[in-house]
Amino acid sequence: MSEHTPNASNFIKTIVSEDLKSGKYDEIITRFPPEPNGYLHIGHAKSIVLNFGLADEFGGKTNLRFDDTNPLKEDQEYVDSIKEDVEWLGYEWDNLFFASNYFDIMHDKAVLLIKKGLAYVDDLSADEIREYRGTLTEPGKESPYRNRTVEENLELFKQMKEGKFANGEKVLRAKIDMSSPNINLRDPVIYRVAHSTHHNTGDKWCIYPMYAFAHPLEDAIEGVTHSICTLEFEDQRPLYDWVVEKCEMEHTPHQYEFGRLNLTDTVMSKRKLKQLVDEHIVDGWDDPRMPTISGLRRRGYTPESIRTFCREIGVSKSSGVVDVQMLEHFVREDLKLKAPRTMGIVKPLKVVITNYPEGQVEMLEAENNPENEEMGTRQIPFSREIYIEQDDFMENPPKKYFRLFPGNEVRLKHAYFIKCEEVIKDENGNVIEIHCTYDPETKSGTGFTGRKVKGTLHWVEASQAVPAEFRIFNPLLKSDEESEEASEKTFLEQINPNSLEIHQGYVEPNMKDAKAGDKFQFFRHGYFNVDPKLSKEDHLVFNLIVSLKSSFKL
Ligand code: ATP
Ligand code: MG
């Protein structure tokens, strides 16, 4: 699938290509290793497209591996959603693995390290360990428990495994170098006690390996050749290599780091996304405002658009911030030729065409997509009463307003010219109805050239209009300032109270059969998706995927 391959300029691709050419490997194996502690987001998509894309391009394999070594935060719901999202993005894993299935091997490797004098049980508390670790400018201090004998360590580790100690009472640490300039090598903790039920192994274990110890072993066990992770792990690479070597793993995987994806106006940390869900600020992980894969899907993003975006942003050695408008650009591009055009009124204003015969309904022909003729045409009704947008009328317009105002003539898309004759108001002075006249000579498609008008409005015939709910989304965060770094309070304070607008409007009669996930371009508005959760046969709900125009240029 050549469409699945990452963008041409990509340093990891160069490495892979050279490793195959030199005969270092016959076949590459990559993996996507999510921790099942939340739903996947657009940042994960970048990693998925990279890992699966490399294997696709070079004829290798990709494992979906759940990095489930922390029982406290993991859940089957997350496992299921991650599988669904990877498949929806269009990828098939060659193997499905759980890191927790390797707990026996990991335990034995920890024992091996103890026997080699390379690991010891420490009684220091987490705070003390941090204090002893030193800083970037000061070396660390050795723990008083560092020189326990192998026998003592084996016995204590056994007792840890048997549940003799409370959480935090003892840990197993690698014995490396407390004065190393790389803090990650200052005797990192590799096993800890956690009395907690694991989603996969239940209560079999009460000790769990730490990420830095587990991850290299997982990669080595699976024969992963190129272990691709984000830049924060660069300083952990020496530890990764140490673990693989000292644990005497048969296969030696290599870690490569790339810059993580950050998007403007977008929260991308699972912890914060979970907070939005838990505090009911959004309607679940798949809320269309969420940057999760399931949220983007529900909003109406297509897998193709997400894959293209991930390829086009490229893979580099530094993490920058990508404008969210670039993501929007690609979904527009993808839907341009696929989504039928139609007319929908988000904020309705009734227009009565006073010289149109009462009781008459005529059918007008409308093309379904002027950029894609194959999509054909449809018939839409027109009569004496129609709806237009409230925003398309102004009683006292400013200069250069070309839409409807008293005395002005505009074109109705696919129909006639109408001219505003009278404004009807209620007792409070609110406009409730506009009276217009139409000119039968100006019918669309008849080649009328008599005179020109500057405005073209969309409309829906009133008697057959289908009521519909429109959901318009604005960014969840008011601004992207400090979004990742901000404290909890600041983060919640940054939430945009107007991120969801709901409007009750109308759509064309033939939309009554629209199904969940159907996508349309509403003329002059943008692309919309039929919400799979909220839309019902008698209550259509459309999510705004993206508006029509953007200032963004590639
Ligand atoms: P978060 O910080 O959002 O919780 P994480 O890195 O802890 O994310 P994991 O489940 O560990 O989430 O991630 C699985 C894979 O996805 C990892 O290889 C990680 O590097 C990658 N990944 C996560 N976030 C991004 C991102 N923003 N850009 C690129 N890759 C990412
Ligand atoms: Mg993580």
Return the structural class.
Answer: alpha/beta
SS summary, helix count: 13
- What can be said about the biggest beta sheet? 7 strands, mixed
**Relative helix content:** 25-40%
User: What's the CATH first level of the domain at 341-547?
Assistant: Mainly Beta
User: How far apart, in Å, are the first and last alpha carbons?
Assistant: 25 Å
Question: How do the strands and helices of this protein lay out in sequence?
Answer:
Blueprint: H1 11-21, E1 29-32, H2 42-58, E2 61-66, H3 76-88, E3 95-98, H4 103-115, E4 119-122, H5 126-132, H6 150-161, E5 171-174, E6 189-193, E7 207-209, H7 211-222, E8 226-230, H8 237-246, E9 254-258, E10 262-263, H9 270-278, H10 293-299, H11 303-312, E11 321-322, H12 324-336, E12 341-342, E13 344-345, E14 348-353, E15 361-367, E16 377-383, E17 385-389, E18 409-412, E19 417-425, E20 431-439, E21 456-457, E22 460-461, E23 466-473, H13 488-493, E24 500-507, E25 519-522, E26 526-530, E27 540-547
Parallel strand pairs: 1-2, 2-3, 8-9, 10-11, 12-25, 14-20, 18-21, 23-27
Antiparallel strand pairs: 4-5, 5-6, 6-7, 13-24, 14-17, 15-16, 17-22, 18-19, 19-20, 23-24, 25-26, 26-27
The chain binds adenosine-5'-triphosphate and magnesium ion.
